[in-house]
Amino acid sequence: PYISRLKDYGHSAYLLGYKKSLNIAYWNVSDASRYTMLFEDMLHTRIVGLNHPLEAMLTNSNPILHPARLYTLFKDFNPKHPFVAPPLFYEDWTDESSEILIACDNEFQSLVKSIGIKESVIPSLLEYYESTDACSLTKKIRSIVAFKGIYAPTKPVSGGMYVPDYDNRYFQEDIPLGLMLIKYMAQINHIPTPMIDMILRWYEGLAGKNLLSGSEIAESEDTAAIRCLNSRIIKKLISTFDV
Fold first, then answer.
1. CB-based contacts of 155, cutoff 8 Å, min separation 6
2. Which residue(s) pair with 162 in the sheet?
3. Given this model, what pLDDT does residue 243 score?
4. How far apart are CA 126 and CA 48, in angstroms?
5. Residue 48: which of 28, 20, 24 has the closest Cα?
6. Amino acid 211: pLDDT
7. Cα separation of 190 and 168, whole Å?
């Protein structure tokens, strides 16, 4: 429900980016109002109920926002030339990052529309960030107060330098789980995703994994879990989506 960063391990954290309301979807819940009240009490925030779990599961936030930025930050990284200091993830945001983000979101929005989810439920990133193009999106992202002081995922090495931290959750969660989920759903709905595929191929090289075969998800050990899980759950969800 907000951005959280460690302050004092085991004791306190910084909580940033509070929202006026939060959306929640229920699945096989008889008394949704009970849980809505519970979450409102816990988070001190108005809770808005969604019509279907797909409206909550599909998001163009972290699964697209983080990978697009990671790609532009680290695609040309040379281990022989580490960073003098960790780059700022949002305050150093570039127009190239915005262009790739917009392209990925366009592919995502094609998927959302094909399923029938209303744009008012999952707006485009340009609309969400009140922007019109890559330049205005860059300016907006750089200016968000809650994004200030957040560094790119790096780790220190000898000589006081920094290299990408490929064990960070931005790499370990947002790409193989978040972006791959979107890719899987796009594939079964016959939506082309050339920009998302570009990021996944780049990640394949970093992680030493076999995720794609051409423009489709590879039939490999690296994708077995997500294919098995998604084939059972997602197809059931899509078959029940009629809102």
1. 162, 163, 164, 165
2. 83, 156
3. 54
4. 22
5. 24
6. 94
7. 31
Side chain identity at residue 168, one-letter code: N
CB within 8 Å of 15: residues ≥ 6 apart: 2, 3, 4
Q: Where are the domains of the chain?
A: 1-49, 57-239
User: What are 193-218's pLDDT values in tens digits?
Assistant: 999 999 999 999 999 999 999 999 99
Look up tokens 């085991």; give the residue: 10
Residues of 161-186 as b/e, b for ≥16 C-beta within 10 angstroms? Answer: ebbbbeebebbeebbbebbbbbbbbb
Q: Which two tokens stand for residue 167?
A: 């064990």
Q: Which residues contact 197 (CB under 8 A, 6 or more apart)?
A: 183, 212, 215
Please give the DSSP secondary-structure letter assigned to residue 150.
P
Average pLDDT over residues 26-35: 88
Instruction: Please state which of the four CATH numbers 1.10.240.10, 3.40.470.10, 1.10.1040.10, 3.40.50.620 is assigned to the domain occupying 57-239.
Output: 1.10.1040.10
Dmax (CA) of the chain: 59
CA atoms within 13 A on the CB side of 160: 2
Distance, CA of 29 to CA of 32 (rounded, Å): 6
pTM for this entry: 0.88
